[in-house]
What we know:
Structural class: alpha/beta
Distance between the termini: 47 Å
Strand content: 5-15%
Shape: globular
Number of helices: 15
Largest sheet: 9 strands, parallel
Number of strands: 11
CATH topology of the largest domain: TIM Barrel
CATH class of the largest domain: Alpha Beta
CATH architecture of the largest domain: Alpha-Beta Barrel
Amino acid sequence: MHIGPVEFDHYPLFLAPMEDVTDPPFRHVCKMFGADMVYSEFISADGLIRDAVKSVKKLDFSEFERPVGIQIFGNAVEPMVEAARYAETARPDVIDINFGCPVKKVASKGAGSGIMNDIPKMVAITKAVVDAVNVPVTVKTRLGYDDQHREIVDIAERLQDVGIAALTIHGRLRTTKYSEPADWTLIGAVKNNPRMHIPIIGNGDVVDGPSAKRFKEDYGVDGLMIGRATYGNPWIFRQIRAYLDKGEVLPEPDVAERVRIATIHFQRGVEWKGERIAIFEIRKHWAAYFRGLPNFKPFKMRLMEVQTAEEVLDTLKEIEQHYAL
């Protein structure tokens, strides 16, 4: 399978773009465990073209992360074209358009999955971005806006016709809550549509090896994208690969390995965005990094309350020592 010049020599596993999650430190540890392709956090087109510091900083990535995609979102042609050209200067392997974010502050402005209410504009933006840059353009979207508009089969054809190199489909609607299971039937319908020839990547409820194998085999998608299940769990890529390739169920990492990876993640975060922000943003990962450890709550509370990098590292060392006894 390939996306433009990006070749994958085995069945690819993708790290989903997620705001305040898929920054360079987290992408790094996911690549350590075999993520085949990673993406930036989604970047506002308006913020990028205004040179907003936070938006521009999201263009950062290392050579180790390749292949890497930069994902942008917006609700108008010209800002999206300008943002795509700006993103191209960072030399990503692909530029991805976010037509899937369901968050109210994004969708209510007609961006993310909100644009699924206006499919002609969705197609116009995509065509303009494809025509504006020299790297492959991909799209991530959902099944449709709501239950009365499950239009992804038609949308997929129209996006392919204007030149996208691959399409990722999240198996939920704009209005579907995450508590409801992803619906893969329409993802399968897109993949099995004889008019489609670009890679179709499935996303939604891929949480382990068995779920990955089921979605791959039942719906025939060309790759799988993994989102929330990666929180504090970068080794999920290694575990899924082992299951897909060998039917092997790998054990969870021991405490020493969890501490080692959490430390790398945190220290790279401090280097990239500073101590205060790194301490705050890694908090969403702590419970998952140490999931299943008995009587972990006191350590979790400390990790949620510490104020310095030294305190974080000291607590991680204590966790390793405590559970090694």
